[in-house]
């Protein structure tokens, strides 16, 4: 009986987290009230507080979900032997993931999470560092076998990889989601690949 209640709570927390990401995607963190999150999850606000103490705890759960989703993207390419192919698939899946979840950039790049709230900032930093390290390991594999150039160190190439995604997403948000990120993915990837595979 206890186990069943715990599983139900975990499912409800997941539903609330997904609803929060959806509302944040529409209205940003500051505009996402607990009333609206509860409504999107199909529950009352009172029921929401049975699963999360406050809005900050919900945002932490959203950040954790983003981290888990990014980790899943990395895990999805783990068995691919070609590091350059690993990077390409990771790059394109990352853009696809964001295109389908506007709440991701509106959480990660929010002033609330990177400036105002130290606890949320630390959470986001941990998520970014985890993903950065995962990409960096692929880059180092590529450099080791000669698939990637060594003019830049792995840290710089990884920063370029993530920075290219960041720039594309920022432009996409500012252009009211046009053109689609997935439409631009191939061109963006080719430009990145040319830069990092060039050898003197």
Automatic annotation (TrEMBL):
It holds the Pfam family TetR_N. One of its GO terms (molecular function) is DNA binding. Gene3D superfamilies: Tetracycline Repressor, domain 2. Keywords: DNA-binding. Residues 10-70 form the HTH tetR-type domain. InterPro entries: DNA-bd_HTH_TetR-type_CS, Homeodomain-like_sf, HTH-type_Tx_Regulator, HTH_TetR, Tet_transcr_reg_TetR-rel_C_sf, Tscrpt_reg_YsiA_C. Residues 33-52 bind DNA. This is Transcriptional regulator, TetR family. It comes from Trichlorobacter lovleyi (strain ATCC BAA-1151 / DSM 17278 / SZ).
